[in-house]
Amino acid sequence: MPVNEDNEDRELQRHRPRETAGPSWETAPDGVTEQVRQLSQAQERMQALLDAVMAISRKLELPAVLRQIVRAAMDLVDARYGALGVLNEEGTRVEEFIPLGLNDRERQALADVELPQGRGLLGRLIAHPQPLRVDDVPHHPDAAGFPKGHPPMRTLLGVAISVRGHVYGDLYLAERQDGKPFDDQDEAVVLALAGAAGITVENARLYQQVRSGAEHFQRLLLPRLPDLAPFDAAAVYKPATAPGHHLGGDWYDALLLPDGACAAIIGDVVGHDLTAAAAMAQTRNMLRALLYDRRTPPSLVLDRLDATLHAITDSPVTTACLARLEPDRDRWRLLWSTAGHLPPLVVTADGTARYLYAEPGVPLGVDTSLPRPDHTCPLAPGDTVLLFTDGLVEHPERPLDAGLDAFAALATAHAGLPLDQLCRILAARHPSDGHDDLALLALRTPPTGPGGRHR
């Protein structure tokens, strides 16, 4: 019997289970839609909290950490204003106050206002470090009012930040951008951030302690300049600002030799760790002994130092510039040799500057068979010789020549200053970016020549 395909299709359709449309957000009950919306918001807020914790954890410098905590809290609850009050050691009053969110006009209005000391609602949070949420600040019984020029604030959320069980400071947030009071979810997310912030603050404080200890150790390795009369002298050392680079190999030294000349040395051991600092101290001490041995040109002193380092140490590669300032009839003379180091800069009393570019020798620790040449340059009374390391002039985003030009211009602009002031300015305003440690040694010839004649 022939099959009627149309009848068969109709029969299959009749017995096939009917397909029912799945739920859609348009037809879902209002309760389900609200639950999904709340779940989505919770997930977004959790992600924002994780992002905020990561953001504050990336910082190590304490001032930057504190500002980042305030900014992260403001972003989490969409607050217009935020502040962090750091408490004193006793935890009784605000020692430092870090406000964010003020515009230029508001900052100007509060320029002469004393920082909050912890009275009113701020004082309540200090005395009782539980979360504080206020919907009407002006009418709260603990409110102490605002100083003249302070922007109006109606809502407040405050939580304590604890470090090792002690309250370090209080985080304050005011005025949600949508005008609504802070709610339970705001409080919960800021509390969570405050917990992470306490750990970050502790890390930053430990980092600060380690850095201070490293700087102190480094300075102990560097000499206090002796009396180098008739020459004037000053020096400065600054560690790198990059995390983990607080020990370094930059160093300087200066001393009067038995023949009346003044020896000056600047050096840079490769590395930013304890090994580099130890090698720096070892190299400096060896060089002092070699300088006192006999009257020897700088190149031969560097050669003997290189051979000694090769023979009895495993010190890393080191660059150096060794110079002698000595009388030369009615003037002064600079005799110097370099081991792969930057050239000296001579700044005259009338404000001109020139680098003593000359053939450099190889760095120490490379090849003891290669000779290093000596160079000479006449110096007039009142001339300043600057020996420096690359931390003063190198910048990863600029050519070295640009850094050298900027450094020379800075030195020229302040040529008339006493040497200690000149060194401080050069170390503070140098064209580098602080990624490397730096050392600077400055020597100035007397205002008269060796025979007492003025320039």
Textual characterization of the structure:
Helices cover 36% and strands 23% of the residues. The protein has a five-stranded antiparallel sheet with strand order 2-1-5-4-3, with helices on both faces. A five-stranded antiparallel sheet has the order 6-15-14-11-12, covered by helices on one side. The protein has 455 residues and is an alpha+beta fold. The relative contact order is 0.09. The protein has helices spanning 5-15, 30-57, 62-77, 104-109, 120-127, 184-221, 274-293, 298-312, 400-413, 419-428; strands spanning 79-87, 94-100, 132-134, 156-163, 166-176, 232-238, 250-256, 262-269, 318-328, 331-339, 345-347, 353-355, 375-379, 384-388, 438-444. This is GAF domain-containing protein.
What structural class do you assign from the helix and strand content? alpha+beta
CATH superfamily of the largest domain: PPM-type phosphatase domain
Largest sheet: 5 strands, antiparallel
H and E order: HHHEEHHEEEHEEEHHEEEEEEHHE
Distance from N terminus to C terminus (CA atoms, Å) equals 132 Å
Largest beta sheet: strand ordering: 2-1-5-4-3
Morphology: elongated
* Count of DSSP-assigned helices: 10
Q: What share of residues are in beta strands?
A: 15-25%
Poorly predicted regions: 1-5, 7-23
Topology-level CATH name of the largest domain: Phosphatase 2c, domain 1
Domain GAF: 61-211
Coiled coil: 32-59
Domain PPM-type phosphatase: 228-445
Protein name: GAF domain-containing protein
